[in-house]
């Protein structure tokens, strides 16, 4: 008997009680086996609503915030061409792959990027393209994006990412240092409309070299 049978369903139920209401997002949470994205010794904690270490000083985000950010994109009307910055374990990318038609994801640590790619292949998720690179630069050749989701916190909104948004497109990202706020940016022509939401806690979006 599979130790994790129904675990995804229970996690989705929990997120529903916390206000994640979109069925497509809840179905993705139910169906993606989060225990595959964490170290085996932490697998028993994989379906708790907490962030967990994934090595290299990085973390897999809390499921609630994964659901929340994904739902914000759905509610904005996004259907395809989503860019994620900070692939990490690949869990958020897998969720995005189940919800949207075409997803791209950038990670600065080669080992994490490599492992994440393998995990998505294992799950037969083929609509997510990944690359090793610096997320501050986005993914120029694939722009423009209907949405950009940043899963590490920059101290200010990266200019290149704003420019890679399609007209009407939405970016969701944590901004700050010690204290961070979830921010949305909607592009309207040459205007970028910012809104500030709840406080959040992400690892920093590192500047400079890739590893
Ligand atoms: N979305 C991930 C969360 C990973 S934590 C998941 O579902 O597991 C944030 C990730 O952002 C880390 O893997 C970190 O290495 C990466 N990161 C930090 N700075 C970056 C940068 N400048 N460019 C690309 N990735 C970056």
Automatic annotation (TrEMBL):
HAMAP family the record matches: PIMT
Per its record, how is this protein called by name?
Answer: Protein-L-isoaspartate O-methyltransferase
Q: Which family does it belong to?
A: Belongs to the methyltransferase superfamily. L-isoaspartyl/D-aspartyl protein methyltransferase family.
**Gene name on record?**
pcm
Query: What's any GO biological process attached to this entry?
Result: protein repair
Keyword hit for ATP-binding: no
Can you say where in the cell this protein is located?
Cytoplasm
Query: Which EC class does it fall in?
Result: transferase
- Keyword Cytoplasm included in the entry's annotation: yes
Q: What is its EC number?
A: 2.1.1.77
The species this protein belongs to is Psychrosphaera saromensis
Please give the function described in this protein's UniProt entry: Catalyzes the methyl esterification of L-isoaspartyl residues in peptides and proteins that result from spontaneous decomposition of normal L-aspartyl and L-asparaginyl residues. It plays a role in the repair and/or degradation of damaged proteins.
* Record field: catalytic activity: [protein]-L-isoaspartate + S-adenosyl-L-methionine = [protein]-L-isoaspartate alpha-methyl ester + S-adenosyl-L-homocysteine
Show the GO MF annotations. protein-L-isoaspartate (D-aspartate) O-methyltransferase activity
Query: Which cellular component appears as one GO term in the record?
Result: cytoplasm
Q: Which NCBIfam families is this protein grouped with? A: pimt, PRK00312.1
Indicate the residues that form the catalytic site.
61
